[in-house]
Design brief:
The chain is flat. The two termini are 17 Å apart. It is an alpha+beta fold and 960 residues long. The strands form three sheets. A nine-stranded mixed β-sheet has the order 17-18-16-19-15-14-20-13-21, sandwiched between helices. Strands 1, 2, 3, 4, 9, 10, 11 and 12 form an eight-stranded mixed β-sheet that branches. Strands 5, 6, 7 and 8 form a four-stranded mixed β-sheet that branches. The longest helix has 44 residues. The chain has 33 helices and 21 strands.
Length: 960
């Protein structure tokens, strides 16, 4: 708005009066009310581009702020549901059991209690009594009566693998026809009314049971009873499970199929068959007469579809009360005075809680970093708008405008732009990320809105409290930090040191929840680095100015002089850049650490790109097999090894022995060394395992000497156990002495930490049992076909398949998505900070070029001048961000635990260590982007300025 317009509309809050002001108080109020709307509308019409840019930035920031809590809550909810649904039904089901009705009751009362109608009423009451948030899934639940002590069958036609008679469990399970399909015969049913005195009932078996135990429709089994007259169970149907993994068939696996059980207490390994027969629900009274300890059960499958991440605490409390608390007493009022509830659902929820506790602090680090960068960029945007309107507001202030009136109107015009953009960002976040509470997203969006709406009025009006003299220089070269600033910087330094020390000592796994001070450690480190760099920034400029001043040409000197006259408020752009680059580097390092951990775990499990081995130590590879595998597509090299597990070591110096023993690995030194190089492991010193002297190969037909000493490369623990002297070893590969000639912390052939590696040529019984394959992409079908052609039971493991087995749980995938977004947002905000910093001084540089063109400056020189002027700060931010990012990762790596994020749910997770390492791409690419963007903006500005005439820029009375 020009001065003439200000004079016509009147200064906000000013005391200037016109004749119309004497027309009465009503007219004055009407005029002021009418003047408010034109102010906002005029401002938006005057600078629509700036308003649109501010709205876009607010939209993006609000979307990110609102989406973060919804994303966290969504993946925690999905993770809880996934953990419950994917768990074995035998662990997740709530099983209520009760002994049969008391024998003191009348027989008809006992029979009625265990029939389908009575059991169904109890089942419905139990489901209804479950406390929130535990809810039952009635479709997957079942109830009935089963015998807990197996009954030995004496029928001669039943198979007896080791001469032992099979044993059977009898059960009445509700809903058999809903969970299975009839293969042959008919569904079992009751004829008349079955009681404890009945002596014949019908039953069904699964097709797997019938095949293994030679059963068919019409077969009968006799079950001893307390009265002495056996109960005849006639098989009337063969069924197949509809969904074998559901709780009906999985809680008691014998329902699904038979099992071979070793006999207890036998000196020789003998097995017998055990299986289950399924009776109709109304046949339960007949089981009360058996001597096999019948028991009533109600298996209630949990319904996880309604659970959210917020229900974890209530769910754990409810389960604890059901197992041994007030809720158990309620269950006993329904199912019987001695009823018990057993479940492993509480352990599933506890494991989920531990995973969430381990992942949440790592995610909070990314959230704090991006939040800090976004806040700084928003403040920079407000500063840019305020700087552009500095002279306009100074004129209003000089004409009597009050700070309150100016601030009120600035707030109004900012709110008109910001509120719709924030509402749209919130709406997009809600639509994009569902299944979460609304108020955290609303609170986050409101925080962004308040920050933006308050930043511009406060920052602008506070700078106009006192009149400012024109011409006073405010640059980094002459700026002197005040005492207040020094105290504030020292305070931040203490906080940063405390946060880094706490993170290194305690790590991210805090029992009390997420520690914001620990999570803000990268931000504090970036903040301290920004303050230090701002203080050091003038020194290199002063040193470079002296030699440049002696050179011919004014471009170099002018560029350094202009860079030195940058505003002392440049701390904010530098702070935004350093925090953004540090956050991007930290996020990239987290993702790189996760990828490395999974790759290392897959390599440790397989040992190479592929592994072919038999089921035991004695499964040797046939001759010529290595050559056939080497010919498979995608195979570069093979390394045959012999593995003998459980080799006993000599007693230690204190006389103690290790029953576990060590693993003896026989290798070909040359091929095994190539394998180590191909897989990226530590170089294998194969030259130390020379088959010479006493270790030379034994001629065929010659009995090897027991005094032969073979050189071995051992793990640290085995090397310590063997010592420096030769030690006797007995193994499947022969008996000999070994001497340690080298120590290796790990090896490809085995994942054990206790091993000995020996030259296979020195073994008297050297026969390779495992083939390790290397290649960029070995053909899985070709390898399995080659293994199958041997006629032996050889298995093929692929490193790529092991890597794919690390399937992300919803919590892991959600955390990785947040870190991917953190990298992208960090890089984007860094580039935006550079752009805002350059735009803030763009008018001044444009005027400078116009003035220099009148003195003969060419277009090319103008481009170089602007590029050289922008480079010092861009290089400072890029190099500083790279170094600070690297230093932050090095400082925080000991305290960041990525095992849960990378390998949660994988077997052997405790044996892996996942360290945070610097990712070069995440460090270098954003830093290069800052430099490239700064140069591009300078070039575009010089090109645009060259197209405009000097008359347009140089106007009489212009103070730029």
């Amino acid at each position: 708005m020009s001065a003439d317009q200000n004079q016509n509309t009147g200064a906000p809050g000013g005391a200037e009066k016109t004749p119309a002001a004497t027309a009465g108080p009503g007219a004055a109020v009407a005029r002021r009310a009418a003047a408010c709307a034109p102010w906002v509308r005029t401002r938006l019409r005057t600078a629509p581009g700036a308003a649109a840019a501010l709205a876009g930035l607010v939209l993006l920031t609000t979307f990110l702020a609102a989406a973060f809590p919804r994303s966290v809550e969504a993946y925690e909810t999905d993770g809880l549901r996934h953990d419950i649904v994917s768990a074995s039904p035998s662990r997740s089901v709530l099983e209520v059991t009760s002994p049969p009705p008391s024998p003191d009751l009348r027989p008809e009362v006992r029979d009625t209690a265990v029939r389908s109608a009575g059991m169904s009423r109890v089942d419905a009451a139990l489901m209804k009594s479950l406390p929130e948030p535990v809810r039952p899934d009635a479709a997957r639940s079942s109830y009935g009566v089963h015998t807990t002590a197996p009954a030995v069958a004496s029928e001669p036609w039943l198979p007896r693998p080791d001469g032992l008679a099979p044993q059977f469990t009898y059960a009445t399970a509700s809903g058999l026809d809903k969970h299975g399909t009839l293969r042959s015969g008919k569904w079992p049913a009751v004829r008349g009314e079955v009681s404890a005195d009945s002596r014949e009932v019908e039953a069904a078996v699964t097709a797997e049971t019938a095949s293994a135990l030679r059963m068919k429709v019409g077969s009968t089994l006799s079950v001893p009873t307390r009265t002495g007259t056996p109960l005849t169970v006639r098989i009337t149907g063969i069924v197949s499970p509809l969904r074998p993994t559901e709780s009906f068939w999985s809680v008691e696996p014998l329902f699904r199929g038979p099992a071979l059980i070793p006999e207890r207490g036998s000196s020789e390994p003998k097995n017998y068959w055990t299986a289950a027969l399924l009776l109709p629900p109304d046949a339960a009274p007949a089981l009360l007469a058996t001597m096999n300890e019948p028991e009533l059960f109600w298996r209630i499958a949990p319904d996880a579809t309604h659970l959210t991440g917020l229900d974890v605490s209530g769910l754990r409390s409810a389960l604890a009360s059901l197992e041994s608390g007030p809720e158990l007493l309620k269950l006993r009022d329904i199912a019987g005075p001695t009823a018990t509830l057993t479940t492993d659902l509480d352990e599933i929820v506890l494991a989920h809680t531990r995973m969430r506790s381990a992942i949440s602090p790592v995610v909070t680090v990314a959230a704090v970093g991006i939040g800090a960068v976004a806040a700084v960029v928003l403040l920079m945007t407000g500063g840019l708008i305020g700087a552009r309107r500095h002279h306009e507001l100074a004129l209003l202030r000089s004409r009597g405008g009050s700070l309150r009136g100016i601030g009120r109107r600035l707030f109004a015009e900012t709110a008109v732009t910001v509120l719709p953009a924030a509402a749209l960002g919130l709406l997009l976040a809600v639509l994009t990320v569902g299944r979460a509470r609304l108020w955290p997203a609303v609170a986050a969006a409101a925080a962004v809105t308040v920050l933006v709406c308050a930043a511009l009025p406060l920052r602008t009006t506070l700078r106009h409290i006192r009149p400012q003299l024109h011409g006073a220089r405010d640059d980094m070269m002459n700026a002197r930090p005040s005492r207040r600033r020094t105290v504030a910087e020292l305070t931040l330094l203490v906080l940063a040191i405390g946060a880094v020390a706490a993170l290194r000592r305690r790590g991210t796994d805090t029992e009390g929840g997420t520690d914001l001070l620990v999570s803000s450690a990268p931000v504090l480190v970036g903040l301290i680095a920004a303050l230090v760099l701002v203080r050091l920034y003038p020194l290199p400029l002063r040193l470079a100015s002296r030699p440049v001043a002696r050179l011919r040409g004014a471009i170099g000197f002018l560029s350094l002089a202009r860079a030195g006259r940058a505003s002392s408020s440049g701390t904010l752009p530098l702070l935004a850049l350093l925090i953004a680059l540090t956050t991007a580097a930290f996020g990239g390092s987290v993702l790189a650490g996760v990828g490395d951990a999974r790759g290392d775990a897959a390599l440790k499990a397989v040992g190479a790109d592929a592994r072919i081995s038999g089921p035991g130590d004695r499964s040797t590879l046939p001759k010529g097999f290595a050559d056939r595998v080497r010919a498979v597509r995608g195979v570069d090299d093979v390394a045959p090894v012999q593995i003998d597990y459980g080799v006993l070591l000599p007693p230690a110096a204190d006389g103690s022995t290790d029953a576990k023993g060590a693993t003896l690995v026989g290798v070909e030194p040359e091929s095994y060394a190539r394998l180590a190089r191909a897989t990226g492991l530590k170089a294998f010193p194969g030259e130390r395992l020379k088959a010479t002297g006493s270790a030379a190969p034994v001629p065929r037909g010659t009995f090897p000497s027991l005094d032969r000493v073979l050189p071995v490369i051992a793990s640290p623990s085995v090397a310590e156990r063997l010592g420096d002297q030769p030690q006797d070893i007995e193994s499947l590969a022969g008996d000999f002495k070994v001497r340690v000639v080298g120590v290796q912390p790990s090896t490809s052939a085995v994942a054990d930490s206790d091993f000995m590696i020996v030259n296979s040529a020195s073994l008297s019984e050297g026969h390779p049992t495992t083939l390790l394959v290397t290649g960029p992409d070995p053909d899985a079908k070709g390898l399995r076909a080659a293994a199958h052609d041997t006629g032996k039971d050889f298995g093929v493991q692929l490193r790529s398949e092991e890597l794919d087995a690390f399937v992300d749980t919803p919590m892991q995938a959600g955390a990785e998505r947040i870190y991917t977004a953190a990298i992208t947002a960090g890089a984007g905000y860094a580039l935006l900070a550079v752009l805002l910093s350059l735009l803030q001084t763009a008018p001044e540089r444009t005027t400078l070029l116009a003035r220099l063109r009148t003195m003969g400056l060419t277009t090319g020189q103008g481009r170089r001048l602007l590029a050289f002027e922008a480079m010092p700060q861009a290089l400072l931010a890029a190099v500083g961000g790279l170094l600070v990012g690297w230093a932050t990762i090095a400082l925080l790596a000991p305290g960041v635990n990525l095992v849960t994020l990378a390998l949660a749910g994988a077997s052997g997770t405790a044996q892996h260590t996942v360290s945070l390492r610097a990712d070069p791409w995440s460090l270098v690419l954003p830093a290069l982007g800052v430099i490239v963007l700064a140069a591009a903006v300078a070039g575009v500005q010089a090109w645009w300025a060259s197209r405009r005439g000097s008359i347009t820029e140089l106007r009489a009375g212009d103070t730029r």
